[in-house]
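Dear Dr. V.,

Thank you for agreeing to look over these. As mentioned in my earlier message, I'm a first-year student in the group and I'm still getting used to reading structure tokens, so any feedback on how I've presented them would be very welcome. I ran two proteins. I've put each sequence directly above its structure. The first is here:
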Amino acid sequence: MGKRQFTIQTSKETIPVEGQAHRNVAIRYLMKRRRSLIMTKDMRKAEQLYCDLPHTVKIIGKQITRSYSIKWEREGIENYEGSRFVFTIHEENEEGD
């Protein structure tokens, strides 16, 4: 299966990307956002990044748009301040053109 064009839309930004499936594109984007938290040692910066994390993501394909709600959780606050953030993703709806 080849890569297709998608657009990631959050409340703050719109990003064109390539991927194979709507959910995989969303997870890859969220993992990159989480990775920036993991690498942050400064508590204030980690807190700011955590507040800026998206809680809804819309993945726009050529024919189908899928929306996902994201629940972010903190698991701990030791060592690296941002290293203990996990998320769960749930599909909200499916729209076809």
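The second protein is here, in the same arrangement:
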Amino acid sequence: MRIIIACTLSLLVLFTSAAMAEDINGRLGLTGKAGVIVPLEDSTINGQTFWLSDEGFAGGGGIMYGIGQHLAVETDITHVPSLDVKMGTGGKVAEAQFTDFSIGLQFRIPTGTGLVPYVGGGADFIKGDISSSTLDWAVGGHVNGGVDYFVNKSIALNLEARGIFAEKSDIQQNGQTVGKFNPDSVVTTFGVRLFLPKYW
């Protein structure tokens, strides 16, 4: 009987601690992340089609703030430092880089086990360049989904997939528009979130 009571109390403490750790209402979270980007669409320059490497490195971070048990607002920066630009038979002709600045909302689903799945969406603003060319700002949006695993009340591990969809931006050379760049892509990242004390 004592063993059953001890096990029951241990489980209650475990689940209570996990549920408390998941609560980010009124708390600020800082995120660092790294992963892979997969471009989805081709672009054009001087009347010719080009595409980017099948995949590349993406990294960045962001800030989030809990505004209830199920909602959080987040700002995020994802930087892609280098993607090969390929044309014709698939040879590399240049390099591209761009940065995605986004703001959005998360709908979070606390489970009481330390795992918190979420889905979200928001607006994106993308800027970059291709070798000797520059890219105008592209405006679009994103949908994202992922899961946080709370190691403790202050630290959570994060896994996320994000689809970025935006208008094509002009490619400029010497002040002239010479093509269109399509930033549509999927980014998958692993990260760590650091949550500051409530009402810090």
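From my reading of the second output: Helices lie at 2-22. Residues 2-195 form a domain with the Porin fold (CATH 2.40.160.20). Does that match how you would interpret it?

Kind regards,
E.
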